[in-house]
Amino acid sequence: MSATVHVDVTVNGERREADVEARLLLVHWLRDELGLTGTHVGCDTTNCGACTVHMNGEAVKSCTVLTAQADGAEVTTIEGLASGGELHPMQAAFMDKHGLQCGFCTPGMIMAAADLLQRNPNPSDDEIRHGLEGNLCRCTGYHNIVEAVRSAAGVSA
Amino acid sequence: MITAPFDYEAPETVEEAVRMLHENGEDAKLLAGGHSLLPLMKLRLAAPTILIDIKNIPGMHHIQQDEGGWRIGPKARHADLQDTPELGVVARAASGIADQQVRNRGTLGGSLAHGDPASDMPTVLLALDGEVTASGRDGERTIAAADLFQDYLTTALAHDEMITEVRLPALAGYGFGYQKFARRAEDWAMVGVCAVVSRAPDGSCDDVRIGLTNMGATPLRATAAENALRGSGLDDNAIAAAAEQAAEGTDPPGDLNATPDYKRHLARVLTRRALEEAVSV
Amino acid sequence: MSAIGQSMRRKEDPRMITGRGRYTEDINLPGMLHAVLVRSPEAHAAIRSIDTSAALERDGVVAVLTGEDMAGDFAGPLPMVWVPPGVEIKTPEHWPLKRGEVKHVGDPVAVVVATTRHAAVDAAEDVIVEYDTKPVVVDPEAALEPGSALVWEQFGTNKTHEWAIGGGDIDAGLAEAEVTVEHRFVNHRTAGAPIEPRCSVAESRGDDLTLYSTTQIPHIARFVFSGMLGIPEDRLRVVAPDVGGGFGAKLQTYAEEALVLALAKRLGRPVKWIETRTEHMATTHHGRDQINYVTLGARRDGTITALRVKVIADLGAYQQLLTPFIPELGFPVMGGCYRIPNIDLHFTGVFTNKMATDAVRGAGRPEATYWIELMMDRLADELGMDRLGLRRKNFIGADEFPFETALGIVYDSGNYQGTLDKLLEHFDLDEFRAEQERLRGEGVYRGVGFSTWVEVCGLAPSRAVGPQGVGLQAAFWESANVRVTPTGSAIVYTGTSPHGQGIDTSFAQIAGDMLGIDPQNVDVHHGDTDQGTWGWDTYGSRSLSVGGEAVVRASQRVQDKAKRICAALLEAAPEDIELVDGKYQVRGSPDRSMTMAEISGAAHIPPNELPADIEPGLEESAFYDPENFVFPFGAHACVVDVDAETGKVEVVRYVAVDDCGPAINPMLIDGQVHGGIVHAIGQVLYEQIVYDADGQLVTGTFVDYALPTAAEVPSFETDRTETRSPVNTLGVKGIGEAGTIAATPAVASAVLDAIRPLGVTELDMPMTPVRVWQAIHGNGGAA
């Protein structure tokens, strides 16, 4: 039997402690144990980015992080991105610019895009596109996602 | 995808980590960012029985410059390198690794220890004639890049050794270029070329170093091209002539995206472009 | 103000942008078990033995079952529903778990059920299966050769069927041709690849079964699985919650859905199966995979006289729901938007040791537009004519609609010149050619490709595609139920089942306008067989033109009744009540009016007295089976740059002018077009399902199956013309697949245009760097 690991993680501002199997991926802990099902799994190979969350303020793919590795970290998921009943500007921009269709890649895409603007508040279109190269979308053709990020950058600026 | 079960330890010192590696033999693996190891484990292409996570070992993520050049902790992430433009070609190559989420987790030490010839950092270390400090039960030793990468996913590190520092020459006054050719922006290199060049006072090539990504079982140096250029002019014709020799002595395997011939061709084209980029900086 | 025509923001979005969508994998039920499949690593083999003992001993394992163990769980195999009159389609029995032999990599041979997914995955590794391998065939043309290895020995051949259709006199047409061009095209195998993998959860309560599944077709699934399980339809409820993209890949009745239902029934506990992406690439049906031999004949002046096409379709190892029909599905538009008097189409299906093919976005039409448009290019070049000039010469005229083609298909409406003219307003071809010439001088190889396309969608009509038509054993009408609540909100139930199309929004716009209710107060329900009317689900760009029309008709009935109630209460004649800006008012006396809330209140709640001849309540249903398909069309231009040294292609500009009739929500149309274009860019430049000669799947993950990312594609320029369809009240046509159908030839033609000065005149998709480089350097671009 594999070891269990005690973890103490602040998730969306709330301290969560648990004993988890060492191999439990962060995404599975968030989804299956904490019920934060907004974070999705779309591939097995760290390609699609649907599982993107923020760990200590930066975007990571939670399918490639052990829950044990997140011990002591602050994790923000899509459910924790809005604050005080106000949508995060990136969430609002995705809705306003029709940056989503089926919605499955959307949480990861929004988390990646929010991180992108943290790193680079005024990105060019090319920087937006390369900044989102770790997130696959099959519906939108990315056009309106780029529009949304551009629009949110205007809001943030 | 779910990995096979494993035990997990998170020691707080290098000594403890090395001891655990030693005691658990070949079934133990070090875990840093996990972005080389965990994907393989999720596909069950790797199944270590114990992971030794170095996250609780303090430090080891420094990026410092001293008279000897750069000293970089193995836990420095690709994102940290990317955000340190003074690192020149290292920052440049780091910024092209996979995607930002991966760069936010993946580490320099992890990438070097994994020794994937399709990865960018091993090539950069080799091209720059860098070296790593390896810590084992008998203390530290230095391994030059040329000796580190021995075969496909195989390095000179013993199973109970870990990289505790990476050192790179400062290469002040060198121009640099990194050309990565991939099907998509987030992919591994089909072929990549790292080039650094310095000029003599007369404008000729004083020193040149060229590393090749994914052209064999390990990262490679384009020695013939380096020799052709060293001491010659750095005009377009000289660069083109030298680049023609970039694939000398290589025998890259074909894969889904490229035939061996095509890879050799790409090595020549990308070497020329990397050199052109290097002399224009 | 009318809601129809506005780019209303989507009603779906608030939950999705906050992580409150509810997808199948998000559903966890008390006592739920997890199923994991043991799959064949061999492409073709007899199962010698299966040892489940070690797996059964693991903690948490509840059951490990093989195909033989579950033989009694199913009353029938997985279905294939095409029975074309007079043609036999060889259809092997297809059971959820294999008995005896496996036919492709990923074929399921056993299922492990455990209390956790982790335990089930571990135990599945302990199931030991011994195989005796058999000869493998992966190339469809080799599979047709005498002496080929056979996928199914009992048939004595790998040929599944032949089907043909034609019109005019092909021999006369070819004889009349002064110029003939011939070419072999390959439409290679791809994957729909929605970002949400498949997932199914089944629950058994008493005699009732419920299936939650990532499906485009909950109604069809209930029909099929109640039959497979041998239970009455009323005992089975199928729910498609939020579905994370379909692209045809979820237009299927899958083995795993049948399995979790049978397991839940057998074990009396909920059972969940989650597909990994690796499983998805191997066992979610693939698309395309055709070879097309095309002959196009014309007179010297460019008048086309004949088109002959032979299609060889690689169907894989099994006949899934629509597998053999997908290649033929595009036949109504295989003459494109051109006047072609003599057409002959011939289809041959072939078994190979690969996953079955079936519908993927466009399903038969992108394959067709690909060769149609590239053949127009080749013919123009052969004639020395301008490529667009040749197209214009042969366009069906705007004044010729409805136009009956040589195949007896009636195109509903069109203005092909109009979309091309509009395209060229955005895209200055003369300027482009000058720029192209200048860039070539600098060593930059830039090319443009045009696609003047027409497609057929809005499946329906039942009489054309049903049993009495081409022979699908189903009907294709659509239904809606529209209910106004006592306080004046509306609930619309539709028989379509969306997965990203924005139907919650566009149908609310339609019903809102027709009822006089703010669309924000119209809630659209779908995807649950326990709710609303029976329907035929979502595929074939049918939601709006078929399902939307049903909403129109049901809404009209509600509006009519509301007018009767209003008239009674205002003491006016029903025919004098008009709906103006959300008010039901007496014609000529706008001060005498009622809102829908007031009318509905009166319809529902006493003491407001309705006349005796008006029933209480305010709810109507409609069932609609259209008279014809709809035929969207347009003109696209793609510009690419080719790095001649490396062979890498970059799409630098894309202009799309589409016509899908009057827009309900222009924002949604643009979104569909963008996504469709990138799907085609994926096929032409990046994506390919590859099996090696041993039938091993080489592209088993998203590492190797290269979906384009944002960094690989540009932003798009879109515009529209609006030509009404006479088929439905709204005048609308589908747009979900159009981008893919249009863009496939445009992108490919652009690459060929770019490298034409380098002596390349042909190159198969996917036009990957190595292939482009080989083509340029004379190593042959064709696979």
General description of the model:
The complex is a heterotrimer of chains A (about 160), B (about 280) and C (about 775). By secondary structure, chain A is of the alpha+beta class. Chain A is built from 5 helices and 5 strands. Chain A has a 5-stranded mixed beta sheet with strand order 2-1-5-3-4, with helices on one face. The longest helix of chain A is centred in the C-terminal third of the chain and has 14 residues, at about 105-120. The radius of gyration of chain A is 16 Å and the shape is globular. The model of chain A has no long low-confidence stretch (mean pLDDT about 95). In chain B, about 30% of the residues lie in helices and about 25% in strands. In chain B, strands 4-5-10-6-7 form a 5-stranded antiparallel beta sheet. In chain B, helix 9 (about 225-230) runs antiparallel to helix 10 (about 235-245) and helix 10 runs antiparallel to helix 11. The longest helix of chain B has 21 residues, at about 260-280. By secondary structure, chain C is α+β, with helices and mostly antiparallel strands. Chain C is built from 20 helices and 28 strands. In chain C, a hairpin with a 5-residue loop joins strand 16 and strand 17. In chain C, helix 18 packs across helix 19 (about 740-755). Chain C is globular, with a radius of gyration of 27 Å. Chain C starts with 12 loop residues before the first helix and ends in a 7-residue tail after the last helix. Classes of the chains: A alpha+beta (about 160), B alpha+beta (about 280), C alpha+beta (about 775). Chains in contact: A-B, A-C, B-C. Chains A and C meet through helix 2, helix 3, helix 4 and helix 5 of A and helix 1 and helix 18 of C.
Dominant shape of chain C: globular
Calculate the terminal CA-CA distance of chain C, rounded to whole Å: 56 Å
Structural class of chain C: alpha+beta
Tally of extended strands of chain A?
5
The number of helical segments of chain C is 20
Mean pLDDT of chain C: 97
Give the number of DSSP strands of chain C. Answer: 28
Shape of chain A: globular
Cross-sheet strand order for the largest sheet of chain C: 3-5-1-12-9-10-11
- SSE ordering of chain A: EEHEEEHHHH
Biggest interface in this structure? A-C, 57 and 59 residues
Strand order of the largest sheet of chain A: 2-1-5-3-4
